[in-house]
Amino acid sequence: MNRRELLINLLLLAAIAALAYAILAGSEEQPDLSMASTVRTARPGDLETTFNPEVARKKYPMLGQTALFQPIITPTPTPPPPTPTPTKTPDIKAALGQWRLSSAGDGEALIENRAEKNPENQFFSLRVGQSRSVEVEKGVMKNATLKKLDENADNPSATFILEGTSEEYTLKMFD
C-alpha cells in the first residue's frame, strides 16, 4: 500500500469516528418533557369557536368535492361475457339420408323413411309446399319441406329444403 492510499484510509477512519461520536453524544441529551405535562384549565370563553363557514368556503373551495378514496391505479375492468356459440347449421344430408323416394305421381311424392322403426309410419306422402318434421340431431326437430317435384323425368326426383338451411337435397327414385 502506498502513502497516498494510507492517508485516504486514515482520513475516512477519522470521519467515521467523528460521525459515531456525534451520534452517541446527541442521544445522551433527554428532551425536557415538563412543559408537556402541564394541564391547562379550560375557561368559558375558550369553548366558543370563531368558525365562519363563508371564510372556510373561500379558503378551501374544493373541500368535499373530490373523492378521498379514489384508487390511484384504475381497477381492472370486468371482462365482457363470452359471445355465445352460434347455433350449428343442421346437415340436410344427414337428416334426410334415410329417406327414399318410392313413387311420384299426380303432384304427390311417396317417401319411405328407413330410419322409422314402426312399419305403419315408414311411408308418407307429401305435396309441393308441405312439410314433415325430421330429427336433425338428438332431440332437435326441424321441418323438411318439399320444394319441387319432378315426376315426368326419366328418373323422378323430389327436392327438399330444411328449416334453418339454404341448402337443397334431392331424392331420386333410381340411384
Question: What's the total count of β strands?
Answer: 7
Q: What is the chains' assembly state?
A: single chain
Average pLDDT, rounded to a whole number, is: 83
- Cα shape: elongated
User: Biggest sheet, strands in spatial order?
Assistant: 4-5-6-7
Gyration radius, in Å:
49 Å
> Can you summarize the main beta sheet?
4 strands, antiparallel
> Which structural category do the helix and sheet elements fall into?
alpha+beta
Number of helices: 3
The separation of the N and C termini measures 108 Å
Low-confidence stretches: none
Bin the strand percentage. Answer: 25-35%
Return the string of H and E elements: HHHEEEEEEE
Helix content: 10-25%
Overview of this protein structure:
With 175 residues, this protein is α+β, with helices and mostly antiparallel strands. The mean pLDDT is 83. The strands form two sheets. Strands 4-5-6-7 form a four-stranded antiparallel beta sheet. The chain has a three-stranded antiparallel beta sheet with strand order 1-2-3, with no helix packed on it. Strand 5 (140-150) and strand 6 form a beta hairpin. The chain contains three helices and seven strands; from the N terminus they run H-H-H-E-E-E-E-E-E-E.
Question: How would you sum up this structure in a few lines?
Answer:
With about 180 residues, this protein is an alpha+beta fold.
